Amino acid sequence: MANSSQDFSQLNISEEEKDKLVAEVIRYVLFKTHQNSGCPIKRDELTQIVTKNYHQRLLPALVINEAIAKLSSIFGFEMRELQRSRPSSTNQQSVADAKSYVLISQLPADVYRKYIDDVNTAHLTGFTFVVISIVHLAGGKIPEEHLWHHLRRMGLHETDESHPVLGNIKQALETLVQQRYLQKDKVNGPEGNTLVYELAERALDGPVCDSIKEYISQIVKKEVASVEID
Amino acid sequence: MAVLNWKHHTLIQALMTRGPLKENEFHKIFAAVTGKNPRSHERDFNDFLLKINKELSYVQMELRRCRNQNDGQVCYGLVNNVSDEQSKFGTKYSVPQITFYKGVIEAIMQDATAQGSISTIDALNIRLENQVHRGMGSQSQGGLSQVPPALRNFSMSQKEKTLDELVHDQWLCHTPDGDIGLGVKSYLDLRSWFHNSGIPTCEVCNEAAIKAKVCQNEGCMLRIHHYCLKKKLSQSRGKIVCPTCGVQWEFQIPKPEAIEVEDELNEPTVSQPPAGSKRRKLKANRNADADIGACGSSQVSSATNLKRVTRSYTRMT
């Protein structure tokens, strides 16, 4: 704590100004997360909040770090940084890949399940889990038609726009891409261009990946006839 | 040094993820994480909330408590205290939709009978252009030409869709008789705005009385929430006198003795509530082995009693 206040005073900014900036960053993260249903927030958007009015070079990093600390101490949220670990073939950039953040609750899983989990969004979580598992079992990558083949077995059709629970199925899948659970790539194949879905940052994130593997193994252990993924 | 621990975080996150919670649900979570019943450990409960709010003030947010005026239920929610650049990102609604919502709120607030709701038809007929003029105030010059096309062309079906979304998100609600009322989120979020808006406040709790009982004296502005009134009635044994204008409020109390109180005559026949059974009683009297004379006179007086009872009945409803 003493270190950071030294850093801030070196940067010629008052405590109040610093607090105001940190609060703005926190508020931005909270409101944006609500508005875009948990899609990652780019680090650039956060630095912009600082650089709009302040030009000290090291200030954005310090403000963001303090915002991360406060989001944890006040709300119990971890602002986790997602890194693009698998560069998609369409994406030419590598290092220039924006860092992005998502908010993840730091509460223990049983507490979260009992008191926080919103029963009204359980269908979305379920859908997310199923799709990620399918892609995971396919080796982390799956061509579009294969994915729909499996979804159709569950009664989810590509053309269905008014599914009683999920609404527009295609849109529901697209949301997973926006939330960075999946990414879409065009692959040049012998038959022409095919669309391939790959696991993206959020699905490859350590804790998430481990939980998914655990859940899959639980399901498979219970199943006598295992389902073949082609 | 962390001031808040996982127990505080649980309550904060529950409100953030699930939206406003009714009092018993909120109490349940508190009791589960702290092992203390909020009703028996009131001070601990309040200290807990105070601690949370002290930290939340850093980001201009607040854990607030309010009454859903539709049913008197106490609710808790996390609200934003400041409208700034960041909070503008916090909404999924478009500008015309928000304008429409404001129009609905204003229409509900302007109801002099304090129903706390408007009919769906009235809601759908709200014109967004009027909202713009009100917002612009003395600056408005060009009239209709100043209204952006998105507001002017907000169609009926778009309004219907917006109403459904607003109800789903608890900004508005459907009342039991099919009208549109304010939702719990509006009561939470806009509490101070309502308070400063000039609506008469409730005599008992001093909150804006949007859905409330208005003084039966037409010129009097006094309002009391239905749930505040219930409490007052139970304390004052059924009699309320308006503190502002002194008129006594009449009430439909479902006890036969009440009719005795209202009615001046002390005839025993008065104690029968419905007029219908009185007629039956009359017939029974006639058939009974009673004095014809007494019967005859009682018939006449019974008839006038009938009139009195019916009259006092209409006074009460």
Automatic annotation (TrEMBL), chain A:
It comes from Hevea brasiliensis (Para rubber tree). Gene3D superfamilies: MAGE homology domain, winged helix WH1 motif, MAGE homology domain, winged helix WH2 motif. It holds the Pfam family MAGE. This is Uncharacterized protein. One of its GO terms (cellular component) is nucleus.
UniProtKB/TrEMBL annotation, chain B:
Residues 202-245 form the Non-structural maintenance of chromosomes element 1 RING C4HC3-type domain. Its main location: nucleus. Coiled coil: none annotated. It is found in: Nucleus. The keyword Lipid biosynthesis does not apply. InterPro entries: Nse1, Nse1_RING_C4HC3-type, WH-like_DNA-bd_sf, Znf_RING/FYVE/PHD. The keyword Lyase does not apply. Its EC number is 2.3.2.27. It is an enzyme of class 2 (transferase). Residues 263-285 are annotated as: Disordered. It catalyses: S-ubiquitinyl-[E2 ubiquitin-conjugating enzyme]-L-cysteine + [acceptor protein]-L-lysine = [E2 ubiquitin-conjugating enzyme]-L-cysteine + N(6)-ubiquitinyl-[acceptor protein]-L-lysine. Keywords: DNA damage, DNA recombination, DNA repair, Metal-binding, Nucleus, Transferase, Ubl conjugation pathway, Zinc, Zinc-finger. It comes from the Eukaryota. Component of the Smc5-Smc6 complex. Belongs to the NSE1 family. This is Non-structural maintenance of chromosomes element 1 homolog. It comes from Hevea brasiliensis.
